[in-house]
Design goal:
Blueprint: E1 2-9, H1 13-24, E2 30-33, H2 42-45, H3 77-90, E3 97-98, E4 103-109, E5 114-119, E6 124-132, E7 155-157, E8 171-175, H4 181-191, E9 194-198, E10 205-206, H5 215-223, H6 225-240, H7 243-247, H8 252-267, H9 271-277, E11 289-290, H10 294-298, E12 303-306, E13 310-314, E14 317-320, E15 325-327, E16 330-333, E17 347-349, H11 356-359, E18 378-380, H12 393-414, E19 419-421, H13 423-437, H14 465-471, E20 480-482
Helix pairs in contact: 1-12, 5-6, 12-14
The structure holds NADP nicotinamide-adenine-dinucleotide phosphate.
NADP nicotinamide-adenine-dinucleotide phosphate binds at residues 52-54, 137, 143, 158, 175-181, 200-201, 287, 310, 334-337, 447, 449.
Length: 486
């Protein structure tokens, strides 16, 4: 059993950000446990062709580590992964990283007031604080389609892309038309003789306007860091302007709807294909996607958009409910992630032996998606209701980390045994968030991964990101309990 002050789980944006902040505050007794063999989180796992961020990268990156060298405004996955590796190296995190350490259980020990943490490989740790940077998009969702085991060709999920599969001679069936699929479908259509795209619900798609960042602008950003700072600042506020459309004046969405329909009209000439690709729900209810190459790709003659629901998978392809078999040699699932099951297989046991899975059996909730009553000195990064439909998650992570660091310092400096959020503070926070969500576009009647099986939105933050940050900007003693401190 190894003793540390702080144990961080995961090395994506959350875990690495936590490591950097711990270092900057002079903490040296911490480890970052990572199940894989390199850092990166989703940016390590998702290697599908076309994978890129769908928020402009000058905002979707750490404020404390600007990169003047981004090649595109929507950076590609390899570049973001390299950036995260640079973060780990630059901030001296490598000695703290333990690869091949998949945490299976973290259990509060009342006697020692520490967390006992066990890994699949047998390693065990005792930590005063746990920061869980598990990420919401780490566990692929693979639908249990009838007949799938009978399919004779390769089958894989977009987050587990099988690069050994040669698509240039294969007919490819793609299931799903979400954020990932619209990025890899153009690549498949360019290479494969036939792509059958099985669409359950058409997404709303806005123009992406991705631009390469020329050497001149890069040199300027490098020479005058203020330029990049101002650019980031401008991007931040431009994104915040979108919030009212999502949370209040959903009529604003009607304007965006016209822009999206125009985008479809400009890119798809065939009216029957356009009809298939036109959503029938309010724009914004599901994640709004950005793409300049998806519509042109699906309009190509070697791509077929199939809207008849899937009946079963057969040996040679996909049979739809009209009895037609669509021949496929390869099946690719772009079917998303298990987002609402936040801690997944990780067993988190808090005070009095309570398991987080049980505490959340009626729906996940946490104060600012971060603190859960009954789970002392435990911080969950990007937990319930912290997701965004309009801006960068890195902003949310940095907001949470500022509070985490403050709280750790308070516990250490006051001599408290432990800290936890008060029950009533957590409950009233949750009620307020759920109340605000009622008027939002996300509850306007579509099925989306934002909602759990009870139809409750446990995923998104219903407001401006600066209000989220403001709520975490100070440690209000009325909301928190410090054990052993009067
Ligand atoms: P997703 O947005 O959840 O899309 C899943 C797709 O699969 C949807 O079209 C869904 O249809 C379909 N689907 C699911 N189960 C199905 C079934 N049983 N039969 C037929 N179709 C089924 O997943 P994703 O595209 O992987 O993206 C997930 C999230 O990852 C995104 O929303 C985004 O937050 C993130 N992402 C981010 C980036 C980035 O650049 N930052 C890039 C890619 C992904 P329905 O709509 O009918 O449910």
């Amino acid at each position: 059993m190894e003793d540390v002050d702080v144990l961080v789980i995961g090395s994506g944006f959350g875990g690495l950000g936590a490591g950097v902040e711990l270092k900057r505050r002079g903490h040296s007794s911490f480890v970052i446990l990572e199940q894989a063999d390199r850092v990166g989180g989703v940016w390590r796992e998702n290697t599908y062709p076309g994978c890129a961020c769908d928020v402009r990268v000058h905002l979707y990156s750490f404020s404390f580590f600007p990169n003047p060298d981004w090649s595109h405004s929507y950076a590609r996955q390899p570049e973001i992964l390299t950036y995260l590796e640079r973060v780990a190296r630059t901030f001296g995190l490598l000695p703290h990283l333990r690869f091949g350490h998949r945490v299976v259980e973290t259990k509060w020990n009342e006697t020692s007031a520490r967390w006992d943490v066990s890994c699949e490989n047998g390693a065990r740790f005792s930590a005063r604080f746990v920061i869980a940077g598990l990420g919401g998009l780490s566990r692929p969702a693979l639908p249990d389609l009838p007949g799938l085991p009978t399919f004779k060709g390769p089958v894989f999920h977009s987050a587990r892309w099988d690069h050994s599969v040669e698509v240039s001679k294969a007919r490819v069936g793609v299931i799903g038309t979400g954020a990932s699929a619209i990025q890899f479908v153009p690549h498949l259509v360019e290479r494969s003789p036939k792509v059958s795209l099985f669409q359950r619900t058409p997404p709303w798609i806005m123009p992406r306007h991705d631009t390469p960042i020329g050497p001149g602008l890069r040199a300027l950003m490098k020479a005058v860091p203020l330029v990049q700072l101002l650019f980031r600042w401008a991007l931040y506020w431009l994104h915040e302007l979108r919030v009212p459309a999502f949370v209040k004046a959903t009529w604003l969405m009607k304007v965006a709807r016209l822009a999206a329909l125009k985008h479809l009209e400009n890119q798809v000439a065939d009216p029957s294909l356009r009809a298939k690709l036109t959503p029938d729900y309010t724009l914004g209810c599901k994640r709004v996607l950005v793409s300049d190459d998806f519509y042109p790709a699906v309009a190509k003659p070697n791509c077929e958009v199939v809207t008849t629901p899937i009946d079963t998978i057969v040996e040679s392809g996909v049979r739809t409910r009209d009895g037609q078999v669509h021949p496929c040699d390869v099946l690719v699932f772009g079917t998303g992630f298990q987002v609402t099951d936040i801690v997944g297989q990780l067993s988190v046991i808090g005070r009095n032996g309570a398991s987080l899975a049980d505490v959340w059996s009626q729906g996940a909730k946490a104060w600012y998606g971060l603190a859960i009553h009954g789970f002392p000195n435990f911080f969950l990064l990007t937990g319930p209701n912290t997701g965004l439909g309009h801006s960068s998650m890195v902003f949310m992570i940095e907001s949470q980390l500022a509070f985490v660091m403050k709280t750790i310092d308070i516990v250490l400096n006051t001599g408290a045994r432990w800290w936890q959020v008060r029950d009533d503070a957590e409950a009233s926070f949750h009620a307020a968030v759920q109340r605000r969500l009622q008027q939002t576009v996300w509850l306007s009647g579509c099925r989306s991964w934002y909602l759990d099986e009870r139809g409750q939105n446990v995923t998104l933050w219903p407001g401006f990101t600066f209000t989220f940050r403001a709520g975490l900007s100070r440690f209000d003693k009325r909301l928190h309990h410090l054990e052993g401190v009067s």
